[in-house]
Design brief:
551 residues, alpha/beta, Luciferase, domain 3, 14-stranded mixed β-sheet, 17 helices, 26% strand
């Protein structure tokens, strides 16, 4: 009952408490500039008033088409403050992707960098958009820093065309009062966000979560690190993109709700990360396995002092034993694991009171119930045996935004409860620790990104020359998996090359979704009912790799 009361509040309540306790402490460091908790809260309130003044109302969707920067955090909480729903998306998405996401989410407002303005403008008339709010990488920095950045051509710039529906972020922020209208938030009903992840039908699907669900998630992350991550004393190097739920959960649960400081990294460049760790004496770090490998292989690593690091976590993909061992040997510090999915948040974390076990992704969060089942029958497998992981909690979402068919594929009913199918195969030991075994053939993990095979296949099959496509992941020790497409062309087509199809994809997909290899075949393996047998091709590629045959 106590927890129910505790979770019965909007997400911003946790930061408000930290602000009252640490008003003058630095909440964020961005490009060398420090922003206190009190200033952050003032800006959130001012921008909330600005959004309301523009006509944004309860339940309206506000797309955040932004990298890691103060504007992201300000806009995220400002939208929630007035009952609106933030929709964070990757700043490297193409117009093709943005148009779909705007229409699917029904967003009427988008906040974007000047460098992305032309993308939004290109699709504006084909969406429900009513207003565009633009900003820049350096808009909230002091004038002298902006001037230096522009003089030395260090700041990417884009052209913004004026119009009645085009507004500047900073102008709205500074011209609005710090007292937005009071909007009642019902935590168990009000959506906290919509986050998009890959779909099995070729279209991204929106994952929704209420304020109560997100508050419980953030609270449990804080509880899992209690006694290890100190309140008001830690400095977190925020490399992971804030449009991912993993980054949001850690930022709120370990940093902003505890009065700690986050160094926001707009572009994840290894030298810049190492410099920030040394300069600001970073104590906490979260990265994908590929980033840890890049740091270890950086030829200037010895020039940086990283002795301030206290805890490191890896998420987004399986951490190779070799990377974990090298990191431990180099820094005398283990890498802990976080494991989950956008649909359910973190499912498990490795305990901080003991060294992480080899191959373990941790123990389930307190509210998460897990089962390991046979993927065909959904019956539990014998103890210690691998199977598909399913997860439930009273706090998680029970389906996707406007996607009933996708919901029915991914969410199942067991014993009167709604469980989410993780599409990953794991096993559990006698102590309740989970160990990763394999993933569904439908999902590729590339540099920590979760890439939908079906989404790439759908884009390829939209090409006039393509009659069929199959996308699989090819294991790669540096990036997790590389993306390979097997393509079947129409019989009468001539002169279409892999380069042509790569360009076609580049115009429609974010860079991390592009196939690195394209192979042409006469046919694809299919079942008796015509279903693509992607796992057969995936297994074939793995066998070829083991035999040393080049892709």
């Amino acid at each position: 009952m106590e927890k129910m009361e505790k979770y019965n509040e909007p997400l911003i309540a946790g930061i408000e408490r930290a602000c009252r306790k640490y008003p003058n402490k630095t909440a964020m460091i961005y490009l060398g500039e420090r922003y206190s908790y009190s200033l952050l809260m003032e800006w959130i309130n001012r921008f909330a008033a600005a959004l309301h003044g523009l006509g944004v109302r309860r339940e309206e969707k506000v797309m955040l088409y932004l990298p890691n920067c103060p504007q992201f955090i300000i806009a995220y909480f400002a939208a929630q403050r007035i009952g609106a729903v933030p929709v964070p998306v990757s700043p490297i998405y193409t117009p093709h992707e943005i148009k779909y996401l705007l229409n699917d989410s029904e967003a009427e407002t988008v906040i974007c960098l000047d460098t992305n303005f032309r993308y939004v403008q290109e699709v504006y008339s084909d969406t429900l958009l009513k207003r565009i709010i633009t900003t820049t990488y350096v808009e909230l920095l002091p004038a002298y820093k902006r001037l230096v950045g522009f003089l030395f051509d260090k700041v990417p710039r884009g052209k913004i065309e004026k119009g009645p529906n085009v507004h500047r972020f900073k102008r709205l922020l500074l011209s609005s009062p710090p007292n937005p209208p009071v909007v009642e938030i019902i935590p168990e009903e009000q959506l906290c966000y919509i986050l998009y992840t890959g779909g099995t039908t070729g279209f991204p699907k929106g994952c929704t979560l209420t304020h109560r669900g997100m508050v419980s998630f953030v609270d449990e992350i804080g509880a899992m690190v209690e006694g290890h991550v100190r309140d008001g004393e830690e400095l977190f190097i925020m490399v992971n993109p804030l449009f991912h739920q993993m980054a949001q959960g850690v930022l709120f649960g370990m940093v902003l709700n505890k009065g700690n400081t986050a160094v926001l990294m707009p572009i994840p460049q290894v030298d810049a990360i190492l410099h920030a760790m040394q300069k600001y004496r970073g104590t906490l770090f979260l990265g994908a396995p590929a980033l840890y490998r890049m740091i270890l292989e950086n030829d200037r690593l010895d020039l940086f002092d990283l002795s301030s690091l206290r805890y490191c976590w890896s998420g987004g993909d399986v951490l190779p034993h070799e990377v974990a061992n090298r990191w431990k040997e180099r820094f005398d510090l283990p890498i802990h694991q976080v494991y989950g999915a956008t649909e359910v948040g973190f499912t498990a974390m490795t305990p901080l009171d003991s060294p992480p076990r080899t191959g373990s992704v941790g123990v389930p969060l307190p509210s998460r119930k897990v089962r390991i089942v046979d993927p065909e029958t959904l019956e539990p497998v014998p103890d210690g045996s691998p199977g598909e992981l399913v997860v439930t909690s009273e706090y998680i979402s029970k389906g996707y935004w406007k996607k009933p068919q996708e919901t029915s594929r991914s969410y199942i009913q067991l014993d009167g409860e709604t469980w989410y199918r993780m599409n990953d195969f794991l096993r559990m030991d006698e102590d309740g620790q989970l160990y990763y075994v394999d993933r569904s053939a439908d999902i590729i993990k590339y540099k920590g990104y979760r890439v939908s095979c079906s989404e790439i296949e759908a884009v390829l099959q939209d090409h006039h020359a393509v009659v069929g496509a199959c996308v699989v992941g090819v294991p790669d020790s540096k990036v997790g998996e590389r993306i390979k497409a097997i393509v079947v062309l129409k019989e009468d087509v001539r002169g279409v090359s892999g380069t042509d199809l790569t360009k076609w994809c580049r115009d429609r997909l974010a860079p991390y979704k592009l196939p690195q290899y394209i192979e042409f075949r006469d046919m694809l393996p299919k079942s008796k009912v015509g279903k693509l047998l992607r796992r057969e091709i995936r297994d074939e590629e793995r066998r070829r790799q083991i035999k040393g045959i080049k892709v």
